Structure formats: C-alpha cells, structure tokens
C-alpha cells in the first residue's frame, strides 16, 4: 500500500538510501518494475484519467475445468450412451470408455507440457501449438481442429432436433414408424419380440436441422459478445439434468415406467454383461434386414466425440490468472471426472433395464429422469444449442487466425483485421455445418468428427514426443508429469483408433 510522502523529505535522501529502497521494493512478492526515464528519440505515451481496465481473470475452476466439462458432456451421453451399453454390453462398454478416455488423458498430458513451455498469451489451441512447435505444425493441427468443430456443430443441431421430435412427435412433417425385431436374452432365456414404434423422419431432421442452423448463424452474426457472456449459463441445465437422471435411476422403477425398466437389479446386470451386436436401420432400431452392422470399432467412432473438448480451457488462455497452472490441472481434472462418470453410468444403465429397452429407447435417460422427462428434453435442447453456438463462434475465429498467418495462400479470403468479425469464415463454417446436417443421421456424422479430432490429438502427441526425444533448446516445459513414452503411446492410440474408425465408416 502506497503512502503519501512529503517532497521535502525526498530531497534529503541520500543516494544509498534510494538504492536500499529499490532493493526492498523489488524483493516483495509482486515484483513491480519502476518506470524508466525516456531516452532521446523515444515516444512517450501519457495516459489521462483512469487506467484502462482489463477483463476479469479466472482461476482453474471457472476458467478451465467448467468449460472443459461443458464441452465434454454432450449429446452422445444423453441420446446414444444407453444404446451403446445395450449393443456392446457392460464389459465392452467399460473397455470402450477406458480406451477413449486414455486417448484424451494422454493428449491432455502432452497439451499440458506444451502449455507450460514458456510464457503463454491468448489465442487458443492454434496459437498455443503453433508458437511452441512452429507455424506449419500449428496450421495442420489447427485445420483438423477447425473441421472437427465445424462438423460437431451439425452433430449438436441434429441432436437438438432429434430430441425435440422425440418429445413432440406431432411436430413432425413426415410421420415415420418402424417395426422393431429384437432377439435378446431376458433372465437368461432367449426371446424374440416385435413392436411398432415411431421415429423421427430423415426429412424432418433435414428440414428442421437446416432451419435451426440458419437461425443460429443469424445469432452468431449479430451477437458474438452476448454468446460469450452467457455461455457459462448453458452449463446449468446440463448439471441439473444429470442430477435428475441419477435420481431417477436410483428410484426406478416408478409406477408409470415401461416394463423394460427393472430398476437396479443384479439379474439385469448379468443379462446385459455380454455384447449383442445387431443390424439396425438408419434410425438405429434393431432390424435383421438393416443396412448398418455395428461392432466394437464402429462404436468407438460413435462414442469418441463424447470425450473430446479437452482444449476448451486453452481457448480461454487470455482470461486465466495463471495459465501455467490452470490449464494442466483443469484439463486433466475434467478428463478424469467425465471418464469416471461414464464408467459409473455404464454399470448403472446396464443394471437398470432389459437389453431390449436399452436398444429401442434412445432417450432412456429422459424416460427414467425424475421428476419428468420434460426436464431432460429442455436440458438437452439448451445444452446442445449452446454447444452449437460455441462451434459456430469459435471455429470461424480459428480459421481466420490460420489465414492471417499467411501459411496457406488458399485461405487468404478468410483474413480479417484485428477487432473485425470473421464474416467470411463464419459463412464458410455454416455451409459445412448445413452440408452435414443434410445427411440427417447423427450416427454417420460422429465418425467424421472422430477422425478430425483424432488427427488433431495425434499431432499434439507426436509433436510433444519429438520435442521431448530431441531435447530441443526451446523445449523447457514446467509441467513435470510428462514423458516422451507417454506422448508416443498417446499418438499410437490415436492413430490406431483412427484406422479402426475408418475401417467401419461406410
């Protein structure tokens, strides 16, 4: 704290006393540089009035952990996770979650090493990687990250539309129903059953999806600052809906629950322990004559987007109090938290209902939620639309940043000046998103997202591995818990998962 000092007293100080005062001031916890006198020829800026205020700085929890948690927990968990448990069985679902979680955790270790390699300013993952590993490496990884986010926007839009049409079937313009033919084990006995259920039509998903994407683009063009301010509020419905799901799981079955929901029973856990891969139609409903056959590799491509989002903290690097500490701790904590939550959910959902219910009710999370499914419907729609807005806001800025570095001349059209909104990049991102929405099938889009993110994560791990192995002079990360062998294993896991997804992408 500074006190007012009499000017006459200053004149009586000796030169030695002034030196002692400067040494004492420099040795304090917060080091403050004394302003130097201007030299001849230097420009002197004089600020009149109050100094310019900077934005609020965030710590590890709100700056990294919460954004990562918000991006990792997505639509796959709500409308596909129970279906995955029914198809793969409990033990293979546990392997699936552990495998995908290991990929992102090892990538998080490599990302932590890169983030703590010297002073870090704002700019997100592209600047983080490009300034540490070179612009060429940064561009290649940044483009994969851009494409992954652009396609992910369509996944969130389709997830919101599918949830809306399931909640309000009368809103469908094209009514469609399918006959379920399911051969499964119930209490150890093989049974066969058929039932007719209504599913969202492909044309409904396309029409509503394109309309929603266009509306979101208008919001992005008109209110980017508002989107960034209200983004944390979208986490509230996510956390509240998770609480409602777990409460419903433990009090199931309720009096109006479907017969397939048995409540937490050891018999259901035993019956659902093994896998039962089946053919399905385009709506994901089991059908012996279906065109899609599922196996473990195909489910990896479907589930992997549910563990992405680990770079959300680095997107806010300019708003962090201590990037060297917050990014590693917050990113890895969010990865471990969501992985443990997924593992527990596999056991809970596997013991909750019959396999037939797991495979036919894709919104089983809403069916069992307490007090009513409408809570989950609202939570899913709000969270997915919020995530889609983040994709349509962040991806164009990443593309504009890549274009401004003049590495790829083909991207010169997307250049923008500082402080100017990247409208051309936003329009290009919207066209990619609309093109994927027209596919109209979330199960076909997720493998594409998986490929882009795996390429990005493999590049991060491989770059960290080479820098560690070569011991480059500029490579001195403060994060101690990393090793070249871990980065190599992470890169191999990402590449292996990538090829496994490609072999089943048809």
TrEMBL record:
Residues 63-500 form the Amino acid permease/ SLC12A domain. InterPro entries: AA-permease/SLC12A_dom, SLC12A_fam. GO terms for cellular component: membrane. Residues 1-29 form the signal peptide. GO terms for molecular function: potassium:chloride symporter activity. Gene3D superfamilies: Amino acid/polyamine transporter I (1.20.1740.10). It is found in: Membrane. It is a multi-pass membrane protein. It comes from the Eukaryota. This is Amino acid permease/ SLC12A domain-containing protein. The chain crosses the membrane at residues 58-79, 91-116, 137-158, 207-227, 234-252, 292-314, 326-349, 369-389, 424-442, 448-469, 481-503. Keywords: Glycoprotein, Ion transport, Membrane, Potassium, Potassium transport, Signal, Symport, Transmembrane, Transmembrane helix, Transport. Belongs to the SLC12A transporter family.
């Amino acid at each position: 704290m500074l006190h007012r000092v009499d000017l006459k007293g200053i004149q009586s100080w000796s030169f030695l006393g002034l030196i002692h005062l400067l040494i004492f001031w420099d040795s304090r916890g917060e080091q403050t540089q004394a302003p130097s006198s201007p030299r001849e020829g230097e420009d002197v800026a004089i600020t009149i009035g109050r100094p310019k205020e900077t934005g609020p700085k965030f710590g590890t929890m709100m700056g990294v952990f919460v954004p990562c948690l918000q991006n990792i927990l997505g639509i796959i968990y709500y409308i596909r996770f129970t279906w995955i448990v029914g198809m793969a069985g409990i033990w293979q679902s546990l392997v699936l979650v552990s495998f995908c979680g290991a990929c992102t955790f090892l990538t998080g270790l490599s990302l932590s090493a890169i983030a703590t390699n010297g002073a870090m300013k704002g700019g997100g993952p592209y600047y983080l990687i490009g300034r540490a590993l070179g612009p060429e490496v940064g561009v290649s990884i940044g483009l994969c990250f851009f494409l992954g986010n652009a396609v992910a926007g369509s996944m969130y839009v389709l997830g919101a539309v599918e949830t809306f049409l399931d909640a309000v079937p009368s809103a469908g313009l094209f009514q469609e129903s399918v006959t379920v033919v399911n051969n499964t084990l119930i209490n150890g006995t093989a049974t066969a059953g058929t039932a007719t259920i209504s599913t969202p039509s492909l044309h409904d998903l396309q029409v509503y999806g394109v309309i929603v994407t266009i509306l979101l683009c208008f919001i992005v063009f008109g209110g980017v600052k508002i989107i960034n301010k209200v983004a944390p509020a979208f986490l509230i419905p996510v956390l509240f809906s998770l609480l409602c799901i777990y409460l419903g799981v433990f009090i199931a079955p309720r009096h109006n629950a479907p017969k397939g929901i048995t409540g937490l029973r050891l018999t259901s856990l035993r019956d659902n322990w093994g896998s039962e891969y089946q053919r399905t139609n385009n709506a994901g409903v089991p059908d012996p004559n279906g065109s899609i056959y599922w196996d473990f590799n195909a489910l990896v491509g479907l589930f992997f987007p549910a563990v992405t989002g680990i770079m959300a903290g680095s997107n806010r690097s300019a708003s962090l109090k201590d990037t060297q500490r917050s990014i590693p701790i917050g990113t890895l904590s969010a990865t471990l938290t969501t992985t443990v939550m997924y593992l527990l959910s596999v056991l809970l959902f596997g013991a909750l209902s019959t396999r037939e219910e797991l495979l036919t009710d894709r919104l089983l999370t809403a069916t069992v939620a307490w007090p009513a499914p409408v809570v989950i419907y609202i939570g899913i729609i709000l969270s997915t639309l919020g995530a889609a807005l983040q994709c349509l806001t962040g991806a164009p800025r990443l593309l504009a940043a890549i274009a401004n570095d003049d590495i790829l001349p083909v991207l010169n059209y997307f250049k923008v000046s500082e402080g100017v909104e990247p409208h051309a990049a936003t329009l290009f991102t919207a066209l990619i998103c609309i093109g994927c929405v027209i596919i109209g099938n979330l199960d076909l889009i997720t493998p594409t997202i998986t490929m882009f993110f795996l390429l990005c994560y493999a590049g991060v791990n491989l770059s960290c591995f080479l820098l560690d192995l070569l011991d480059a002079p500029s490579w001195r990360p403060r994060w101690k818990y990393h090793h070249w062998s871990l980065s190599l294993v992470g890169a191999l896991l990402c590449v292996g998962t990538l090829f496994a997804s490609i072999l089943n992408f048809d």
